[in-house]
Fold:
Amino acid sequence: MPAALRTLPGSLRLPADPRLPGLLTLLAVLAGVGYRLALLRHDAPPTNSDEATMGLAALHIARGQEFPVWFYGQSYMGTLDAWLAAPVFAVAGPSTFGLRLPTLAMYALFLLLSWRLTVRLTGDHWFALLVVTLLALGSDRIVKNQLIAGGGYPEMNVAGVALALLAYDLAVGRPGRRLPRWAAWGLLGGLMLWVDPLVLPYVGATGLVLAAYRWRELRGRAGALLSLGALLGAAPLLVDSLVAGRNPLAAVLTASGAAQPAGWADRLYGGLVLGPALGMGFCDPGRCAGWQLWWSAALPVLLLAAALLAWRTLRGHRVVDAGAAAAGPADPVDTPGAVAPRVGAAVTLALVGAAVATVAAYAVSSAAGLTPVESARYLSCLLISVPVLLWPLWRAARRRPATGTGQRRPGRGWAAVGRGAAVAVLVATLGTATAATAGAIGRVDAVHAAELRHTALVAALREQGVRHVYGTYWTCNRLTFASAEEVVCAVVDDDLNPGHDRYRPYRAAVRASTAPAWVAPEGSALAARLDQQPFDLLTVDGWRVYLPHR
Structure:
């Protein structure tokens, strides 16, 4: 066989020279990052008070004012987004764009690590190009998860892929910097325990791979460094729990809506039908058309196919050198018959298992039944498993029947049908994700216009000398952050009663004001209530400002 060709199992011979797919992959990475940078420059995806809360935490850290462990107003969901943005704020001042620069960087790293993981597991640079191209697209829900610094979501995917890649390299015995890799795996796992528990299925599954293949090594310095890294990553959670006596797990279960009733039909529809298509980027902004739900039907089939393929690989490669626990080949991907195929299959099974656990946990939660559209973000970690989900399709699409025998082989017709079906699903996957991306782009002008109206509101309050206001939850922290705390807002409900203030000092400051104003979105229930009160009215496009008589 010519040295320039490599034969993948059950597939066509592919050029071994990775330069062309590598160049195309780089272009896909640049396109994905460029698309999201363009969104940020046009104020998309739209910000909200939850993201502004993280921005206020970053502002306080940059000023040395406070050093929050948890998202303000709750005892779970770590503030890693705020700590990453604080240096940006210290240099350039607070802004939504500055808050999102670290999340954009994490997305770029997610693409690069996904490419590397795909090449490690399959050895196919062309398939890695397909994976990166799909991940470069971005529906409304996807770009929200990746760019909005609301706590946890931008970090989880990049951390999950990094954990899988580190687990593969360590389990296969890849030489060089092994102790730092063990420490890095532990640090990432600990950080995710603090930041957001949604990614824990991937932490646990990749950890099982390490335990299965490197249990001897874990009994020595490697295990000590992994444990030290995990303790360091989870230190904010552990210290706060010990000092304050809080139980973050109980807080997470309460926030998930575990105590709220939801019918099982609604849960299963939200978790198994609507959730996967919406959460993985195959739907229009805020909804899923019937034809876009096909992915939810395909997902369990792809999970099963990936699991069966990996299991067959594990069963087929029985010869494992026990000495590989100490060291491995220089390039395990290119060494058939060694430990690499088995480890790759084990990592594949881990990613499949983590995906199944993620979907199952979401489907049985009340959130899937009560708020299925917004809560589909809980499935964002499924993007980590995209390389193993699509690999069986790629193999089937590339397979060609043997020729030159002069006889019609039994099953050739069915093989052709299988190839055609695999190609159709791959094309549908890219096509549906592209259509959803176009839908997100179509909203950009409206989002930008809304942000300009909010900027005008902040300017009008400054011009009027207003420094303290009351408003709704979705008004307050966004307004306070946009003004860099020049305008401080306290939350009220539609009946003018005190609402949920995530940062309590703001309520104290507004209460101490002698003449606070009120701000309400035009057409809101709060605006209708305030219209009946004796205020001087100032209208700003989309907003109503109620000023006390002067």
In short: The radius of gyration is 26 Å.
